[in-house]
């Protein structure tokens, strides 16, 4: 990551934050506000947390209200847009298209048929054609990026480090296929590979396989890394408290991500949960990975 | 595959067939008997089908009765051994060790900690150290291998063929990691990758993701291929009627495997189920894959 300071100074107008689920949108809003820039939240109904949204200037919108977004964001003087929070690959029936979105629907349906990168690049293009500039959340709030070293006090063992290396090598090999940002490796055995199901579901699978005795390997690690050539404005890998809880249920020894290119929701809480569960949460130095 | 005829002539003594679940062990036993060689089944309790086992000379044994196997197989004059049927990576607690197995247990526990190839190579080594010769089921019964072309009447479309090519490319890239013999690809998007959970469980995942609207891609294909350098005596990819049923529940357009290096249980029944479900089941020419 090269953005050590927020990329946008305060005189660039208000920042539109399109908010999915989880606490990340509010961490971003707080950081940007702290840097002196005004934020306007566009909270997606059914995803964004209503209890937290009310603390900020905000509008509610259903997924697919792109016409409404354009009108309101322009009125608020927002040119820069950040899309943040869990809403990865919603069901198509969750989209409630307004008139503008309806016209874009054939294109959107087409976008849904490719890999994640394909979908997200399509979304970015639509925003840009309408005069907005899509920024990565980490570009306006670098503090949401995973630092080097561990959150919490646990450290990986030598065996864990070997599993981490194998996981990273696998993710690198899988990278050209626009799939697989996460993998679980235990005692050099690849136990699970994430595709459309997402990290939480993959960890749940490991927990089940262990319960039924299908996995006799040691504890193992979850390794997440960005795909090569991934559009980092939209889809950096992320971890949150629920990732650590899922890893604990799966009996893992820890989690390894790439420092500077992984978004972390609530690092303090992650550290506390990790300590309680006896898991390490490690940010790998990016140069050591590439 | 080079074995166009069974590798072992009839005068090499009886063939010991260690039987896991499913119908494959009986297809092998029938073929070998037809070639004029005597078979003795060692049916694994809890896995082998008792209704079918009784039609052949047989012994019952719990998984882990290696001492009993050695004694009985030698008494029956079996030097050649085939291990066939579903028993992939049983839970360690399913092993009921006899005295000889007990002595091997530390080694077996170690074997369980690596990838599948690692486990299976360890099993093969143990048999060979005890004077047996482990053969691939397809070496004694080549008719269990998938032929080129389709079982049933459905054929892949051009779009399916593109998904098959992407799936094969992915499996080739994943191959050095001793994982991932199967993948589901739809409209060029990799939806699921098999690791420790097995093919049936992976197909079930796709069915669920589709039900909840998380997959908007087209029908898609299941692609299975042997790993490079895989020990083909023990772990060729296989498909059976339940694979076709799982693929149908997952909404797939078809299944593609590599002809000559995939084991097929009950090809006629597979063809019938595939026709009923409107799925293709395709054996790809091996040269076209490598």
In short:
2 copies of one chain form a homodimer. With about 290 residues, chain A is α/β, with parallel strands linked by helices.
What is the fold's blueprint, element by element?
The structure is a homodimer of 290-residue chains.
Chain A (H helix, E strand, L loop, with lengths): L14 E5 L4 H11 L4 E6 L5 H4 L4 E4 L4 H10 L4 E5 L14 H13 L4 H14 L3 E3 L1 H4 L8 E3 L6 H17 L7 E5 L2 E5 L5 H13 L9 E4 L13 E2 L1 H9 L4 E5 L4 E2 L2 H11 L2 E5 L1 H4 L1
Helix pairs in contact in A: 8-9, 9-10
Supply database-style keywords.
homodimer; 290 residues; alpha/beta; Rossmann fold; Cytidine Deaminase, domain 2; six-stranded mixed beta sheet; five-stranded parallel beta sheet; 19% strand
Would you mind describing this structure in some detail?
- Two copies of one chain form a homodimer.
- Chain A has 290 residues and is an alpha/beta fold.
- Chain A has two domains: 133 residues, Rossmann fold; 145 residues, LpxI C-terminal catalytic domain (Cytidine Deaminase, domain 2, 3-Layer(aba) Sandwich), CATH 3.40.140.
- Chain A is 38% helix and 19% strand.
- The first copy, chain A, has eleven helices and 13 strands.
- A six-stranded mixed beta sheet of chain A has the order 6-13-11-9-7-8, sandwiched between helices.
- In chain A, β7 and β8 form a beta hairpin.
- The radius of gyration of chain A is 19 Å and the shape is globular.
- The model of chain A has no long low-confidence stretch (mean pLDDT 86).
- The interface between A and B is large, with 44 and 44 residues.
């Amino acid at each position: 990551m090269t953005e050590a300071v927020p990329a946008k100074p305060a005189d660039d107008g208000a920042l539109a934050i399109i908010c999915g689920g989880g606490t990340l949108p509010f961490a971003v809003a707080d950081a940007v506000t702290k840097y002196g820039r005004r934020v306007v939240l566009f909270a997606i109904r059914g995803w964004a947390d209503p209890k937290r949204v009310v603390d900020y200037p905000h509008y509610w919108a259903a997924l697919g209200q792109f016409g409404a977004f354009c009108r309101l964001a322009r009125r608020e003087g927002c040119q820069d847009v950040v899309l943040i929070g869990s809403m990865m690959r919603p069901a198509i029936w969750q989209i409630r298209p307004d008139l503008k979105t309806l016209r874009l629907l054939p294109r959107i349906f087409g976008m849904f048929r490719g890999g994640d990168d394909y979908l997200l690049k399509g979304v970015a293009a639509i925003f840009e054609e309408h005069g907005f500039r899509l920024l990565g959340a980490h570009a306006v709030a670098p503090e949401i990026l995973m630092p080097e070293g561990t959150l919490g006090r646990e450290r990986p063992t030598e065996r864990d480090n070997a599993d981490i290396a194998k996981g990273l090598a696998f993710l690198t090999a899988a990278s050209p296929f626009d799939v697989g940002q996460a993998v679980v490796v235990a005692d050099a055995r690849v136990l699970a590979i994430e595709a459309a199901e997402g990290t939480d579901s993959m960890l749940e699978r490991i927990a089940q396989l262990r319960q039924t005795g299908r996995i006799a390997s040691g504890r193992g690690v979850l390794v997440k890394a960005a795909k090569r050539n991934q559009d980092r404005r939209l889809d950096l890998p992320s971890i949150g408290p629920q990732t650590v809880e899922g890893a604990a249920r799966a009996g893992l020894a820890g989690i390894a991500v790439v420092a500077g290119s992984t978004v972390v929701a609530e690092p303090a809480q992650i550290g506390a949960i990790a300590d309680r569960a006896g898991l390490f949460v490690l940010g790998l130095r990016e140069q050591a990975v590439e």
